[in-house]
Amino acid sequence: MIIKEKLKNPIFCIVAMNENRIIGDGKNLLWHIPSDLKRLKKMTMGSPLIMGRKTWDSIGRPLPGRANIVLTNSISWSADGAMVVNSFEDAITKADEWISVNTKINQNIIQKKIFLFGGAEIYKLGLKYCDNIEMTKVKFNIKNGIKFPKLNENNWEKTKLEHHLAINDIPEHSYWHYRRKL
Ligand SMILES: NC(=O)c1ccc[n+]([C@@H]2O[C@H](COP(=O)([O-])OP(=O)(O)OC[C@H]3O[C@@H](n4cnc5c(N)ncnc54)[C@H](OP(=O)(O)O)[C@@H]3O)[C@@H](O)[C@H]2O)c1
Predict the structure, then answer these.
(1) Tag placement on the chain: N or C end, fewer CB within 10 Å?
(2) How far away, in angstroms, is 168 Cα from ligand 1 center?
(3) CB atoms within 10 A of CB 145
């Protein structure tokens, strides 16, 4: 059993969603926001990422400079560059081990934090262990798709960091930091 207070490294959730909490169509993201991807890269570099097998499939390759920990129920699934686990508890153990045995990956210093990388099934499993969410809110008119779990808004202190208006086919979006209230 995972006891949040005993986590060795904090788990940060990172997500981009629209007004209806839609994060993707089950295969891919629904929008392409290059600056958001750049920001995500900068933020996660040197950290372990915990993702579901479907998110791994949608990316199709390991994200460099990070540990790519992939949750699947399959005991035979494997992919180059993926650290495969069969339970969320094992994902955290693997992430902690990776942080403790590495000091650098490529040129990047290891960050002592774990990212809950999605998709929805993985957010559902891990959100209760997160005190921080790096959230991109995207103005994108779609009602159906894969949804981020509903948050109890009263439990979170929200800070809007940046706002970007739509340009060409890049939708309006804003960056938020959510911090769990104690
Ligand atoms: N907007 C964002 O920030 C963001 C971030 C990430 C992903 N996404 C999008 O989200 C969508 C995918 O999300 P999703 O919810 O459908 O899938 P997912 O969470 O990426 O992966 C689900 C898979 O994880 C494995 N899994 C789940 N719970 C498990 C458990 N308790 N033990 C072992 N394995 C477990 C299973 O793999 P097996 O089937 O192999 O057993 C399951 O099918 C895509 O559209 C992607 O583009 C969006």
Answers:
(1) N
(2) 30
(3) 17
Say which DSSP state 5 is in: G
- CB 126 near ligand 1, within 6 Å: no
Structure tokens at 114: 């774990």
In degrees, rounded to 5, the angle at the alpha carbon of residue 176 between the alpha carbons of residues 171 and 177 is: 155
What the chain holds in terms of domains, given with CATH numbers, is 8-152 (3.40.430.10)
Nearest CA to ligand 1 atom 37: 72
pTM: 0.98
Burial class (CB in 10 A: 0-12, 13-18, 19+), 120: buried
Which region, left, alpha or beta, applies to residue 52 given φ > 0 means left and ψ of -120 to 50 means alpha? beta
- Closest CA relative to residue 169, chosen from 142, 143, 140: 140
Find residue 11's DSSP bridge partners: 114, 130
Give residue 153's Cα distance to chain centre: 19
> Tens digits of per-residue pLDDT, 25-53?
999 999 999 999 999 999 999 999 999 99
* Ligand 1 atom 38: residue of nearest CA: 72
